[in-house]
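We close this part of the discussion by returning to an individual protein. Part of our work consisted of pairing the sequence of a single chain with a tokenised description of its backbone. The amino acid sequence and the backbone structure tokens for this protein are reproduced below.
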Amino acid sequence: MSLSIVQGFSKSLAMTVLSEIGDKTFFAAAILAMRHPRRYVLAGCLSALIVMTVLSAAVGWAAPNLISRTLTKHIATVLFLGFGLWSLWDAFHEGESEELAEVEAELDADLKANSETSRANGKGDDAKKKNRPLFSQFFSPIFLKAFSITFFGEWGDKSQIATIGLAAAENPLGVVLGGILGQALCQTAAVFGGKSLATQISEKFIALSGGVLFIVFGIQSFFATVES
């Protein structure tokens, strides 16, 4: 395995873990797993994040082919430093957010609406679910719900844009592999740790750690651009 892949993998893994722990989609996965079968929630959330990681890395890989590589590295440097300062600002000025409560309230409203609809469908649904083929059970409404909440929650998020910048500056394959492993670790922790784990996470500490990591990446990207 080449050094460039290892560098991309390690940076992507660290960035993903620090970006996703305590994120809105992390809390959503934890709450959904308390209300629905864990395997469907994990499959839906993780599938959405894998698709998002591959798409983001593809955009980052294509960027140097559309504009000059030097300009791409400058943009990546600015992004990393900007996200680092943004995260540090959040850590020192916003304190512990109420994001978990907000996500839970949104899902409660959605659950209430769905329960009223399902109640009107009668009692025959459970028997029908048991007779479904395995493939159709996997792509169940729960899977699709977890997928859509996670995918659209990540669209335009800081971690997505950072993945694009990292793939433009590092080996895209390493970025994809590190990102997928990081997402798998975070989502597995959210699904099996549940709300008890989510409430114990210090968002301030995560924001502070992520901010420092982004700034380190920005400094490394700056010196790599100067040397080239």
